[in-house]
Amino acid sequence: MTVTARIRFALTAVILAVVYYYLLVYLVGWTSAQQRPGWWLAVFPTRRIGVLGWLIALHTFAVLLAALPIAVAAVVIARTTAVLLGLTAAVLATAAAVAPSLSSAIWPLIWNNHPIFFVTDQVKLIDAVPFIAWVLRAASSNNRFERSRVASSVSQGGGR
Fold first, then answer.
1. pLDDT at 76 over 60
2. pTM as predicted
3. Collapsing DSSP states into helix, strand and coil, what is residue 18?
4. Among 37, 52, 83, 147, which residue's beta carbon has the most beta carbons within 10 A?
């Protein structure tokens, strides 16, 4: 990779990270305000499991919803390195989201209460964008149009 390509990659990753961060803040906040349906608690054996399940489902939905446009942009912008670009943007956005919680006033609250939720949330934030980018890239490379376009460019002496 040339220096110009690296600078372009880094700048694109930072821009995607900022967009991902703000989408996460908005969508996690929006989904947190959603009421659970009346039938939801009846599905689970205890109220606690039902409430935790609802919170986890909402958070997962919000993360996937925020990751989708970032992954699409990564695939469109850098098809061959889309997964790496998505991973870089996700790590930067997650670092920006976690940084305030590392203060001495907040960190003990997280660590003493439910650190597993904190850790799994961060894993979701980091894994969502590269996973969706990988799925999109793999799905689009299997279609007939993509194969015919690649075959015609190779026959004309061009490369990917």
1. yes
2. 0.79
3. helix
4. 83
